[in-house]
TrEMBL record:
Descriptive protein name: FAD-dependent oxidoreductase
Species annotation: Paenibacillus sabuli
Keyword terms, alphabetized: 4Fe-4S, Iron, Iron-sulfur, Metal-binding, Oxidoreductase
Classification via Pfam families: FAD_oxidored
InterPro entries: FAD/NAD-bd_sf (IPR036188), HdrA-like (IPR039650)
Recorded GO MF terms: 4 iron, 4 sulfur cluster binding; metal ion binding; oxidoreductase activity
Domain of life of the native organism: Bacteria
Amino acid sequence: MKRTVSVHDTADVIVVGGGPAGTAAAISAARSGKRTILLEHSAQLGGMGTLGNVSVFMGIGNVTGIYREIISEFLPAALPDSHHESIWPQYSPFELRHYLNQKLEKEGVYVYYHTSFVSAMLEGKRVSGVFANTREGLKAFAGAVVIDCTGDARVAVDAGVPTHAGREEDGLTQPMTLMFMMQDTGKPVAQSLPEDGYRYESVEELPQGRHLYWGGMGDGTLLVNMSRVKGNGAKIEDINYAEKEGLRQVLSIANYLQRTNHPNHILSHVPGQIGVRETNQIEGRYTLTEEDLTSGRRFEDVVAQTNYEIDIHNPTGQANTDERKLDGYDIPYRCLLPAEIEGLIVAGRSISASHVAMSSMRVQATCYALGQAAGIAAALAIESGSALADVSIPLLHERLAEQGVVFQKPVKSGEGR
Ligand SMILES: Cc1cc2nc3c(=O)[nH]c(=O)nc-3n(C[C@H](O)[C@H](O)[C@H](O)COP(=O)(O)OP(=O)(O)OC[C@H]3O[C@@H](n4cnc5c(N)ncnc54)[C@H](O)[C@@H]3O)c2cc1C
């Protein structure tokens, strides 16, 4: 295909994807004085946390930086005194969506909704912008640094960054889940099951072999994470199958819950797309490993810290989940950097990490932290005219601190390299 595409907008920093990583990256880049635009495929910000109806923040052993600010503004009752506590608040995805719209506007980030990344604009080995499908067709967006927060490393893949997916032995990724809500009506409700639905009779027969739901909103809302569909959500055939199978499971699980312990609950919300846990990981300048997690490794170029457990929903689709507690570890800046391509940072769940390591770092609060660091790093590279890999780590830490990030343990020079 050969065609001429007009440049619709030019910015210092282009963030692609408006999930936890993308929203934080855009905020921190804009706060660093850089003109920042965010291109989001859907009509909303928040990524899986709104679009996928995930709507619980898992505890990671800290509440700091932009994530802390979001909690303090959006869920003030959940804000802990210390930066180093775990919180596990449930929230309204509809209200988070609205909050993030307002937040990005206040921060001076221009958000392009309904704008899907199509292809990277490359000058040799440097990304200098992106082509995206907008409501007005194909447009170009030029920028000094692109931050890939698509969750699937879509920009990186297109720019030729090597990636891997899933388990080392067979490439199987964690299964997908269509999360849904039920609402207590205070009286028994009519039950229905589609003709092709599953009539589950016991917990053992359920897709995850367990009950997994939250009722923490205090208003009769039940948030249900109980479906399970095998496949890689970045593959065309897998996602096509998962969207249909996920909904079939949701209607069947709702019917099971009504027949068992929730006779008064109606199905009240099914999001527009299935939740995707794991797809592509870039091969970056450093790859986070299971050993880094279990040994509690610290890094000189730390940009995020977490103690969230290893949490692997069985990639074969079988009903068990591998859950292992961790004491806490660092994620280094190098995990966000492709080895060869310049002008591109990857933040969020698709950073350079093994299958086991990503199962822990993938939760929302960590993705907000990674995004915040990526936005600052982009700004620093622009200011110093340096390569992203040559950004000064002390300066990066200084700017993170200025933006409210408090690391649990002082970073000692030379440690963990
Ligand atoms: C079923 C499920 C349950 C989970 N449970 C929890 C939980 O309880 N608590 C928790 O904290 N975490 C949970 N997680 C993990 C967490 O939600 C995700 O790992 C996290 O949201 C990843 O953040 P991200 O910013 O990397 O990507 P995402 O949240 O995936 O956001 C990516 C964004 O990029 C956009 N995008 C994608 N492609 C393009 C494109 N081509 N062009 C433009 N935009 C694009 C998407 O529309 C989306 O908005 C769960 C995940 C799933 C799937």
